[in-house]
Amino acid sequence: MRNLTPKIISYLFPSFGSILWAVVFFGCLSLGPRMMNLDGDLGRHLVVGGYILDNGAIPLHDIFSHTMPGKPITPHEWLAEVIFALAYRLLGLDGVILVSSLLISTTFWIVFNLMRARNRTLIPVVFVTLLAIACSSLHWLTRPHLFTFLLLALWIHELIELSTGKRQRWWLLPVLMLIWVNLHGAFIAGFVTWFLFGTGLVWDEFKAKSSGERKPSDHVSRSFLLGGVLAFLASLINPAGIGIWKTSLGYIGNQYLVNHTQEYFSPNFHEPGTWPFFIFIGLLIFVLGQINKKMGSGLILIAVVWLVMGLYSARNIPLFAIAAGPLLAQGLEELFINSSIQQKFIIYMRELDARLRIVDINLKGFFWPICCLLIAILGFRIGIRFDLNQTGNSFDPRFFPVEAANWLEDHQQTGQMFNYFPWGGYLLYRRWPNQRVFIDGQTDFYGEALTREYDQVINLTNSWEDVIDKYRISWAILPLEEPVVSAFTSELNWKIIYKDETAVILRSGN
Description:
By secondary structure, this protein is mainly alpha-helical. The chain has 23 helices and four strands. The chain has a four-stranded mixed sheet. 44% of the residues are buried.
């Protein structure tokens, strides 16, 4: 019994990893309304996931729009949509926020533990984890891309484990990829990271041969290559087969669509949300320029390439933070331990770190994440609101046509609809299957041609009226301030049949 007591205590008392997990988890819960209202795609994900649950089939042809009915569709997020829909059926929109918070907190718990296992110090690891969390927070949205956060963290963990030669769990790469490819189209990030890390291993082996140092064992290279090849084969096990590669790569290669998607824009460093990324970059450059320790080329390559991609597209900043965290933590530790500065503060921090490490080593803290999760579930069940403003998790009528959709329930419109692009997912959530949309956020499906036609109407260019005639549009739901509203009334003689502070509904007189 005496031998069991320390072990029980180690699980009951929180470790630093479990504390970080709880802080991020409840932090995400407090940002619930923001996470679901800064993006317009959640509604579509819930509709698609609900359709799969109800029908036991994944839609392979479009049933959600009147502009491209029956056209083949690539379901590259179907499993994530099912998970979101299940959470929604159990706890409503609170369930979606719960799943999103769980994904984000678990991702950075994995990042923390990965760095903790490879570093002798604790304070630099905690600091880098917090900085990575801050970097990623600008893209905390209730979307399937959160699964890519988690899978990339797990993926990098396994690549590092393979490179050490200690645990050759190459079979985990295809297992992870089988899950990833059905959760989110950014599974390609895994192969990019695998290739970069593998290139670094080859380079390190070449340098080791040239200098006469001991080279990595052959079984590491074989395991790394075997895991990657089998992961590629696993990526073909999805409803679209090889088509999922064509869709993902085709979308990235379409400059028109990429340039019309805000999340693909480069980060604006004048906005406070990007400042943690800016600080991360500065620290990484400073640290790599100061340390003498040899860093693994694989870690350097993935950090540099994901940095370039983060500078090119803001949506890649969280992936950079996850990929570059281990490198920055190693560099800061080297400075922390070997710094020649002997000021009282530095000495105190080293002593504090030593004491904290002793405590953290003896604590597991698995009880606390489970306890926090149960508290959140029970809290949502009894009506507790965890968000900062105590408004609850709901679609905000300032950003979505909530009141207009309420009005449409009692005043159903016949004929085809033209809708504001960011509202497409929400309108599916409220009106499908009674009403199909003109377009929604799945631009990889709708493609360049239809997106150009949408832009033609919304921007009143190039005989925009022809698009209305082509698709036999009878009514439209648009933001009140859009110039196209006036054009509908003045040039097409349409009538405003509903108006509120957010949306206006217009209808043809024919």
